[in-house]
Amino acid sequence: xxxxxxxxxxxxxxxxxDPRLFLLQAQSYSSLSIEDLFSALKGSVGTMRDYETGLITxxxxxxxxxxxxxxxxxxxxxxxxxxxxxxxxxxTFRLIRELRPHYKLGLLSNTNEWHFExxxxxxxxxxxxxxxxxxxxxxxxxxxxxxxxxxxxxLGVPAEQCVYIDDLEENVIAARELGMxxxxxxxxxxxxxxxxxxxxxxx
Length: 203
Description:
There is one protein chain. With 203 residues, the protein is α/β, with parallel strands linked by helices. It is built from 11 helices and 7 strands. It has helices spanning 20-26, 34-42, 45-52, 58-69, 75-83, 90-99, 113-120, 135-138, 145-155, 169-177, 188-197, and strands at 5-8, 15-17, 86-88, 104-109, 131-134, 162-166, 181-184. The protein has a 5-stranded parallel β-sheet, with helices on both faces. Helix 1 (20-26) runs antiparallel to helix 5 (75-83) and helix 5 crosses helix 7. The chain is elongated and about 55 Å long.
């Protein structure tokens, strides 16, 4: 099989992320304990989903989370705390650089405006992607088929010539149902081995 494109998830594939880092920073702006902040965030899952599907603005999100978590924090300090949760996965960075000269590359992420602007765009491999598909812009989240269809349309390749990579099995299954080849990401080494088994020429 000759592949034409690779489509990458971001969180826990290109960079790992830890929401607890936000809690640790937010605690200094709140009267709540870490445990109560965690409970408040769990109770705000609907707000976070609305933000990632573009149903509320960044300003709405900021106001709602500040209210739920009893935060007294400036907008800029909130953004700093909320978006500094990502850590690069070097093995994926290397793989992206190896694939870039030979294939189209796309990014497909369930994310929101501030995570994209301040967490994803600054990542050093971001400029290597030909296309970017974001849930808050498409107003659909994986595993909904609409977001995959948007990504394939931007890449301009048929599903059967695209390899999709995600750490969540339900998202991998959804990609396969649309005709894509898909790999359930567990580690950089595992991904490299699976791609080589699929016939992708890697060193």
